[in-house]
Design brief:
- By secondary structure, the protein is mainly beta.
- Helix content is 12%, strand content 38%.
- The radius of gyration is 30 Å and the shape is globular.
């Protein structure tokens, strides 16, 4: 039965009276659905408006259009008859017409403002990112395709040579294909939007993905087999509606030199022996270490590789590592293309066999290892090198010889690490998957305890205590003044506190050009007045940090100019700090169960930040004892970058940030798993941690909530 027209008109009238009470002396009684006419002037009704966008697509390609639709509620009643004015401050990025149709004009970011004309509600903003749009993929164009590893681009093809090397791109559509000229039958692992979709074997024309939602996606294709299986040559990528600028690359860089352990020989322990199916470089300790740090990595490894010359092989590691690959491409590698923060060398297992058979000596191993490290230092002057050994068992003579070679280098940034025994049920007693996980965890624990130690030129700078500039009134501040113009300066400040956790800020004043400042592991660029570079701090603007002095009372700093420029002696760099007090539960943050959000049938815990701070450790006490939990983590809206870290999980969250290998937007669930112990607790670290790739702009502000959903 149709609703009588007079009833519909009456209901509309009631809604309009309620939502325009500021302009009328009439009042609407929502409890009895009657309209009463007050004989006396009363206080106006305070209306609550909920105005929002319907569309959630915040990334466009150039030339693409979307129509913005909105919805408006007043006191929980939907209003349909209203008009909106749309504006944008940056038409070079995107323009919007009176009907809300947005056209993406050029690369960049902007905000679309929407304001309701008839009602007194707050305007809303639509954050939009526009990327360059390409109709086809040029394989050699690294603006479109990211290549990871020593991938050789030549002859209109990409030669993917080494284990765990990869290519990555962003596209719009539902499917994507690739043509390979070489490498047919080899195994690749495919990630779609940071989700592992498994492995497949390469065909001449390979369907990389299909049946996706029609949207923007990021695909990463990783080589699983090592170079002995043959070259993989990528000839073309096709099948999407269009392509976007290549995704942002990770900031942290790792490099691995190794043997069959690093290529993942026999890792699946499937009984098939030395086969493509039984081998997988994406399951190794090295690849898992890369994933843990949300890094990118180069891998150079070969079955049977040695430091000393093997009787059955014409080459040693030192003779070949300077090329694109160890055997298949002898083109010299340009070491300036990739400078790792950490270089991990896992060699020695095959050398032990040579020495024990009398085909080589420990002295030869020592001399060869020192020569190898010296050669590496000629290419990588400033990074941390970790020399590993022992995943397949430890020969004490080999262990002692490698460790002695490291000590003889007299380099504080070269370290020796010996693995504890791991599970080795793979082919020919190689580490299996569980052994590789164990090895990765051991290596990660060792790397986490390392900090880079600089070599200093004390004559290039002066440090003095300052009283005219500070981060806050409680801080002690030191000023760094340069004595001569240099492209970079390495130094230290004696703060009189050993192993002391400190918090504060860094700023630069009076510099005519850009300066990149590292203080211990805190990193920030500063730009001179008038410079419009985005993402840099202005002069006199403070970059916040949380750090720790070393056992000798020092904090270390590094200053860099842009390539081709020099640091000015007119500049002053201020480092301001105070003792850091650990946040206290109930004072700085709270933890409680909540039902305000849901994630399946999970129990939800809410960690609420109560005061501004740089992070804290949170212990969630659950009833799940010795259980493998599944669930997800979500962070409420925040303009600051918030890090959530626990065993096997490390993710950064930020509002309006596109998803990547190690980023997640706020208000979005991100899956994680956790194994509780006998106490049933989940241990989390939350903060703006000072890893070199953090880029955390300022402390966590009050009101940010971290939701942890768990299911036993």
């Amino acid at each position: 039965m149709k609703t009588p027209r007079f009833l519909f008109l009456a209901f509309t009238l009631l809604t309009l009276i309620s939502c325009n009470a500021y302009h009328s002396q009439n009042t609407f009684n929502s409890e009895n659905s009657d309209i009463s006419i007050s004989s006396q002037k009363e206080e106006p009704i305070k209306n609550h408006y909920d105005f929002s966008f319907i569309d959630n697509k915040h990334v466009l390609g150039t030339g693409e259009q979307i129509s913005l639709e909105t919805k408006l509620f007043c006191n929980e009643k939907e209003i349909r008859d209203y008009s909106v004015t749309f504006t944008t401050p940056n038409v070079d990025v995107a323009s919007v017409n009176k009907d809300g149709v947005v056209t993406a004009n050029g690369e960049g970011k902007t905000k679309i403002k929407a304001r309701v004309n008839e009602y007194d509600c707050e305007p809303i903003f639509y954050d939009l990112t526009v990327y360059q749009r390409y109709q086809k993929v040029d394989i050699l164009n690294e603006n479109i395709v990211n290549y990871y590893g020593r991938v050789h681009l030549k002859d209109d093809k990409a030669y993917i040579l080494n284990t765990a090397s990869a290519f990555e791109l962003s596209f719009y559509g539902t499917s994507l294909n690739a043509t390979f000229n070489e490498g047919i039958g080899q195994k690749i692992r495919i990630y779609i939007d940071n989700k592992d979709t498994g492995t497949k074997l390469i065909e001449k024309d390979t369907k990389l993905c299909a049946n996706l939602t029609k949207d923007i996606h990021i695909i990463k294709v990783v080589r699983c087999n090592y170079e002995y299986r043959g070259v993989i040559s990528l000839a073309s990528i096709y099948g999407a509606e269009y392509y976007l600028k290549a995704p942002e690359r990770p900031h942290k860089k790792l490099e691995f030199y190794g043997d069959s352990i690093t290529v993942g020989a026999g890792i699946n322990a499937d009984g098939s022996g030395d086969t493509i199916a039984n081998e997988d470089g994406t399951l190794t300790y090295a690849y898992r270490t890369m994933l843990h740090y949300n890094a990118e990595a180069n891998y150079l490894a070969f079955d049977g590789a040695t430091v000393i010359k093997a009787p059955w092989r014409y080459w040693t590691y030192e003779s070949q590592y300077t090329n694109y690959s160890l055997i298949s491409d002898m083109t010299p590698w340009d070491f300036n293309k990739f400078i790792p923060h950490y270089l991990i060398i896992n060699l020695g297992t095959n050398d032990a066999g040579i020495v024990n058979r009398g085909e080589g000596t420990l002295n030869e191993l020592s001399e060869s290892y020192i020569s190898f490290l010296t050669s590496i230092r000629s290419h990588y002057e400033r990074n941390i090198i970790v020399c590993c050994y022992g995943m397949m068992g430890v020969d004490q003579d080999i262990s002692y010889t490698i460790n002695s070679a490291v000590i003889k280098m007299n380099d504080p940034n070269i370290h020796y690490f010996e693995f504890a025994s791991v599970s080795c049920t793979g082919n020919e007693y190689h580490p299996d998957v569980n052994g590789s996980i164990d090895g990765a965890n051991q290596l990660i624990g060792f790397i986490d305890g390392l900090t880079y130690k600089e070599q200093f030129d004390d004559s290039s700078y002066e440090v003095s205590q300052a009283t005219n500039c500070y981060y806050n009134a409680n801080c002690v501040t030191y000023a760094i003044k340069l004595n001569k113009p240099l492209s970079n300066v390495f130094g230290k400040i004696n703060i009189g506190k050993a192993n002391q956790k400190i918090t504060g800020g860094i700023t630069v004043v009076n510099s005519p050009n850009c300066i990149h400042v590292f203080a211990n592991s805190v990193s920030a660029w500063f730009k001179p007045n008038g410079d419009s570079t985005s993402g840099y701090y202005n002069m006199n603007e403070w970059a916040s940090y949380l750090d720790k002095s070393d056992k000798s009372n020092y904090i270390y700093f590094r200053l860099y100019a842009k390539p081709g420029e020099e640091l000015s002696t007119e500049a002053k760099i201020y480092v301001s700090f105070e003792d850091y007090a650990e946040p206290v539960e109930g004072v700085d943050y709270s933890i409680s169960q909540t039902t305000e959000v849901t994630y399946g049938s999970c129990t939800i815990f809410k960690i609420l930040n109560l005061r501004e701070n740089n992070g804290f450790d949170a212990v969630i006490r659950t009833s799940f004892i010795n259980k493998q939990l599944s669930g997800a983590i979500m962070v409420s809206s925040t303009e600051r970058w918030v890090n959530v870290k626990t065993t096997g999980y490390n993710k950064w969250f930020r509002n309006y940030w596109s998803q990547g290998d190690w980023w997640e937007g706020t208000n979005q669930w991100d899956e994680f798993s956790y194994k509780t112990g006998s106490d049933g607790v989940i241990n989390l670290k939350i903060g703006i941690y000072t890893e070199e790739n953090a880029g955390a702009y300022g402390p966590i502000v009050p009101g940010v909530a971290i939701y942890v959903a768990v299911n036993g």
